[in-house]
Specification:
alpha+beta, Heat Shock Protein 90, elongated
Length: about 475
């Protein structure tokens, strides 16, 4: 008998001398002493709690039979972590899977209660499998059951890892709509104060029936539920310039600020014709500033709604993933989706004084899809474009149709992606941003949504001064 660890020992014994104990093990039930005699010497291990049987056996592969005690079986993963496979009770066997699959054992066998174990080295295991069909049947049955349990555990573990990654991504995604809603609420408070001040000034002067009627018509137009179609950057700039010039001609305060807000909902000089006639001279400024504050407030309410809706959609997406719900087929307007994201990220563009060029293809077909989460794609790509852009740079959003696909290109004029990073940018948790400023999950989320949910493709072209992410989405998916 040889002491291997304190309180643990290994002795060589003839298998036939412990035949009675072996025959109590289900796999060996009905096996004769003659069949066991052919095994010759086996190792009988006596181990105390805390011992590691793989160290005691000094082997990586073998067949173990627990006669008494209790063991814990764990698998060592590639990252060094230990995955619990289960506990082993008296009468159970283990170790056959690595032997039968021809792989080295990655198991860690820890003694929980003082145990007596029979250990068969690899050559003895194969002698037993060849000479005793009854044992062979039992071993193969155990292997099948154990593999089934292990695969079930692995699937559950992978799902938990995915949910953990998604939870981290959810925190990343919630930041933008949360910040947008908070900022919109703050700006709305300022608008309400301005509305109150202008209203008091206007009420101090008696409004004529014509003035009241004109303001009512303009208010109804501003508050109508239907939204105007998203305009390209060129069309939007032309509309703003035309209206700003008209306002300046009529001596309106904050002409350029008013023009941006009023033109965004489709107002032009013809729309304001009634106001021009009903409010002569310098009396026109207050009504139009009042209208701008009202429209701006309505837009901010829309931003809050979009932000809260995004949060709700994100939470719903996690629930659907967790419970494997299948989303219903629906029609999706790509331009509307992009425009909503641009609104939510508007403060970031303004902070860096970035120019947004929208080159929207006319007549872009809606997507017929079961996919969800497309706004998350635009949010992450635009957020990265903003971070990569220099102060007063340009971010371009271009759409088009290519056969049965809709393409969306988001480009910036930053320093580009280093060649060594191009293969890593879609890996979870890979980021070049400073600690605390990036999770490394944004592009992994983009890849998952575009490829897995929409059946689309992602192409990346990057050179210093021009980085493009090209998203191709099937019109029907």
């Amino acid at each position: 008998m040889t002491d291997v660890q304190q309180g643990s020992s290994v002795e060589q014994v003839q298998a036939v001398t412990i035949a009675a104990k072996l025959q109590q093990v289900p796999v060996f039930t009905g096996v004769s002493e003659d069949d066991l005699r052919c095994l010759g010497e086996v190792e009988l291990i006596h181990a105390e709690p805390g011992a590691d049987l793989s160290d005691i056996g000094q082997t990586h592969r073998g067949f173990w039979i627990l006669l008494s005690g209790e063991l814990r079986l764990q698998k060592r993963k590639e990252d060094g972590d230990l995955l619990l496979i289960g506990t082993i009770s008296p009468g159970e066997t283990f170790g056959e899977i690595p032997l039968l699959m021809g792989k080295s054992s990655e198991a860690v066998i820890t003694v929980l209660k003082a145990s007596t174990v029979v250990y068969l080295r690899e050559e003895l295991f194969w002698n037993l499998m060849f000479a005793c069909p009854q044992v062979r049947t039992g071993v193969l049955g155990n292997m099948a059951r154990r593999l089934q349990v292990f695969q079930s555990q692995e699937l559950h573990r992978e799902k938990l890892i995915s949910l953990g990654t998604m939870a981290a991504g959810l925190m990343h995604e919630l930041n933008n709509p949360g910040a947008a809603a908070r900022r919109a609420a703050s700006q709305m408070r300022e608008n309400l104060s301005r509305l109150q001040q202008i209203s008091l000034r206007m009420c101090s002067n008696d409004l004529t029936p014509g003035q009241t009627s004109c303001l009512r018509v303009l208010q109804e137009l501003a508050l109508q539920p239907s939204k105007p179609s998203a305009m390209s950057s060129l069309d939007q700039a032309d509309a703003e310039d035309e209206l700003a010039s008209w306002l300046e001609t009529h001596g309106i305060d904050n002409s350029w600020k008013l023009a941006a807000t009023l033109s965004a909902i489709g107002f032009d000089s013809e729309t304001l014709e009634c106001a021009q006639h009903e409010f002569p001279g310098n009396t026109l400024s207050d009504p139009l500033n009042w209208m701008e504050a009202l429209i701006s407030s309505v837009q901010l309410v829309g931003t809050v709604e979009e932000s809260v809706s995004r949060v709700t959609d994100l939470v719903s997406a996690v629930k659907k993933y967790a419970y494997e719900d299948k989303p219903q087929r629906h029609q999706l307007d790509v331009h509307d989706s992009i425009q909503s994201t641009l609104v939510i990220l508007g403060h970031k563009f303004r902070q860096k004084e970035l120019t947004v060029v929208k080159d929207f293809a006319p007549g872009l077909p809606p997507l017929s899809t079961c996919g969800v989460g497309l706004s998350q794609v635009w949010t992450n790509l635009l957020d990265n474009a903003i971070d990569a852009s220099p102060q007063k740079g340009t971010v371009t959003v271009r759409t088009g149709v290519n056969g049965d696909n809709v393409s969306v290109t988001i480009a910036d004029v930053g320093e580009g992606i280093p060649e060594e990073n191009k293969k890593l940018i879609f890996e979870p948790f890979f980021t070049t941003k400073p600690t605390g400023q990036g999770t490394g999950l944004g592009l992994d989320i983009v890849r998952h949504i575009v490829v897995d949910k929409f059946g689309g493709e992602i192409q990346v072209n990057s050179l210093p001064g021009n980085t493009e992410f090209i998203i191709k989405l099937p019109v029907v998916s």
